Amino acid sequence: MSTPFNTSLRRDPDDPRGLGERIEALIRERIEEAVEFIAMDLLVQLRRAHGRPALEAGSPGDRAEFQELVQDLLRHLRRECSEGLAPDALGKVSQAEVAQGREELARLLAGQTALARLLPDYWQRFEVSKGDFARARLTAPPPRASFLARLFRRSPRTLTRRNSA
Fold it and tell me: In degrees rounded to 5, what are phi and psi of residue 99?
């Protein structure tokens, strides 16, 4: 018999997880999607604002920059969303993070998942915090190139002189 409700919470006979585990997985998935969307959009905006080239699909450098932005965003969310939490609630968040092992991204996502389950206003805090993060990044001056990158960068005058010789 089919039902009019097609939800992902329905129990799949091959899924050994309980309801709590399935809910936690869905929350984590939603957080992952939101953070990836925000970070990608922000990265594109930052590139435009700083006059940098567009992202390339297979670029390891672009991927690393994206991953760094994702982790920075998650760290920011951790600070902002856990502000004012009771010590026992902070302990639960820390416990969830520690359970993920050493990988920082997994730890940060587990912390956000725990916060989402603990805070009734998590998504409101999330929205405010991500807006603050994006504004701070967009108004900050572009990062300076390293000394070696500036040293070996050729100025337009140097190129003109070489072409005219």
Answer: -65, -15
- Angle ∠(111,17,34) on CA atoms, nearest 5: 40
Q: How many domains does the chain have?
A: 1
Of 5, 17, 34, whose CA–CA distance to 129 is shortest? 34
Cα 42 to chain centroid, rounded: 10
Residue in the structure block whose two tokens are 């337009």: 156
Q: Specify the pTM.
A: 0.76
State the DSSP code for 155. P
Domain limits for position 85:
19-140
Which residues of the chain carry a pLDDT beneath 50?
1, 154-165
Q: Is residue 163 part of a domain?
A: no
Backbone angles phi, psi at 34, to 5 degrees: -65, -45
Q: CB–CB of 74/112 below 8 Å?
A: yes
Q: Which residue has the tokens 């309801």?
A: 19
